Amino acid sequence: MGTIIKPTRIFSHHRMQAMRQEADPIADEVIEAVYQERGMVGIGQLMTFLSKKQNQSNYITPQQPIAKDYAGINMSKTAHEQWVKAAIATASLAFTELPGAELPVSVHNFFASYQQLPAWSNVRQMAEGSIFFQKYTDPLMLLLGLYSLPYCYAAADGAQVIYMSQRIHKDTYNRLLETAQFVLEVTKPDAFSANGAGFITCNKIRLMHATIRFYSKQSGRWNDAWGLPINQDDMASTNLAMSYIPIRGLRKLNLNPEDKESEAYLHLWNVVGYLLGVKEELLPANLREAYHIDRVNVSRNFRSSDAGIVLTKALLDSLNYFAPESMPKKLPVAQMRLLLGDDVADMLAIPAADWTWNLVKTTQLRNFFQSLRIA
Prior knowledge:
Radius of gyration: 20 Å
Distance between the termini: 42 Å
Number of helices: 19
C-alpha cells in the first residue's frame, strides 16, 4: 500500500496577521453584558468566580518550609506524590464549579449554551488522544514546563498580555500548577462525557481569557500594534503549544510516537481549542498542517522581548527552586536549550548550558512534574 498524501492548507503570513485583529466575540459579548449590567463590580465578581480555588488556603510559596523539605533527595516517591497532590489542591482552580446565583444571567446562559462537542469531532479519536496522554503523561508534563510555555513566551507580541496579567511572573509556581491541572482535566478519558468537567473547564478558561482581554484594553497600557489581546493568532499558537509542540518534544526525547496516535492527540486538542474559542479554520487537520502553522508562527512572531525574557526567567527560577536538591541547578537550562534550540533560547536569554549539556544529551530528561496526576 502506497503512502497516503494528506492535503495541507496554506496558512499564509497575511492570513495569520489578519487573525491578530480577531478575538472571541461570543465570550467578549458575555463580558460586555456583565459590564453594562454591573460595571467593574460585576467584572470583579465574575473574575472571582473564574479564579476561585478548590481550597481557599494560601498558595504554596518558597517561604513555606514544606516546599523545600519535600524537594529533598531523601524524600520517597510516595511522599512526593502526596505533597504534589496537596499543592494542586491548594493552588488549583475550581474547574468543576458552575456559576452561582450571584452572577448575571448572561454568564449562566453562556455555560448552558456551550456544552456540546463540535459536529466534526470524532469521539473515538478523542478517546485515543486521551490514551496517548495516559501513555506519555510523564514526558508530556515535563514538556509543558520546558517546551510549551517558553514556546509561547518567544512570541513577542503575544507574550505582552501574559506579562501584563502579572500573575505569571509573580506567582509562577502556582500558575504552573494551574496549567498542569487544566491539561490533566481536559485529557481525562471522561472529560467530555456527562460526568466529566471538560466543558465547564473550557468555558471557564474561555471567559477568563475574555476578561483578561477586557482588562488589558481598559488598562490604557495596551499597544494596538500588538493586535488584540489574546487574539486568534495567539490562541491558535497556544493551542499548537499544547498539542503539536509536545508531540515534537517526544521525538526530541527519542520516544517517537506513531503518527496515528499523535494525530489522535492533535484532534483532542483541536476540540479543546474550539471549545476555548479558536476558529475552526485555524485548527490543524493533521501533523503536516500543524508543522506549517508552527513555521509561520515562528517566522512571524518569534523575536526577543522584555516580556518573554522576564517570563522565561521566572519559569526557570521556579523550576530550579522546586527541583530536588540532588539535581544539578543548571539542568533545566540545558533541557530548555535542547528542546527549543539555541536560536529561540537566545531570544529568551536562557543562559548558556554548562557541563549539564552533555548530561542532557546522553541521558533521558528527568521529569519535574511526573507526580502531577489527579486521580
